[in-house]
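Justification of resources, computational component.

The compute hours requested in this renewal are based largely on the per-chain cost of generating structure records like the one below. Each record pairs the submitted sequence with a full structure-token output. That output is archived, and it is also reused by downstream analysis tasks.
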Amino acid sequence: MAVWAARVHRTHRKGPHVSDRHHHEHGHSHGHSLRHRLKHLLTPHSHETADKLDPALESSARGMRALWVSLVVLGVTALAQGVVVAVSGSVALLGDTVHNAADALTAVPLGIAFVLGRRAATRRFTYGYGRAEDLAGIAIVLTIAASAAFAGWTAIERLLDPRPVQHVPAVAVAALVGFAGNEWVARYRIRVGRDIGSAALVADGLHARTDGFTSLAVLLGAGGSALGWQLADPIVGLAITAAIALVLRDAAREVFRRVMDAVDPALVDRAERALLEVEGVRGVGELRLRWIGHRLRAEVAVVVDGDATVRQAHAIAVDAEHALLHAVPRLTAALVHADPAPLPGETDPHLTLAHHMAA
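The structure output for this chain reads:
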């Protein structure tokens, strides 16, 4: 007999009760960090909406700060390179400068996504606006693709029409500045993006790294030009275009997985282990995790004693949610459904839903 299939019905719902009032008072102390920490140590704590709000805002604030810092660093880098372009006439360096400027501008869709992600859920957008980050990730992937196309086109054009590079030492220094600026921004964005769980910010960091590769191409091309080999710059440019394409593949794969609600299987294993340690949970049925922006939500069915009362089953469900919130990083909500343990010969209580599952 099939045990428990996919669910379209959930019995665990939160309603107002005493702990909600306690938490409402507890949540208002977030404005005073020290007092909140002391109160958190001395009083019972909950994981209701107000408690989840501050970490969510904090992660969005970190993302916004990363964007602004990146915008300033890359803006200064592009400005410095632009000055050298004006005096050297280097087409390769011009392309690198355009890449850096475009990379700085990718902060715009991400910034919009982080701002939208702070908006409260509505009756139309019942899960909130966190998925705006996935749309921003798509925009960034398209920008990386455009950068790869531009780099390839520039390299081919230079290959067909070689031109001497003027002020080669200045071009070399500008290339190093471009690489250093992009690599610093890439590391910063990727670190913050992984810390807050933002695939879009990680993809943006990978994009910055592609522009760093382009800067190295300019440096190698300038070296070849200094040695009298004018084709060095376009040949290296084509090789870097291939490297950009590889980074594009990785970034696109990461954003695609996020859009398709993919999660690290290790997180699912971790959640199952945490649930099985909860007193009263006899087994774990369906377990789903999904990203909404840089935060996780969970839906899970747990098996409990069939003779448990509604209150007892609800208490087990609350304990299960609490365990998940502590065990799974960046999880902000879990919807827990309690299933009674099956008895020999008992009809599956979800049999009524079977024809919906088949459809």
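Residues 1-57 have pLDDT under 50 and may be disordered. DSSP finds twelve helices and three strands in the chain.
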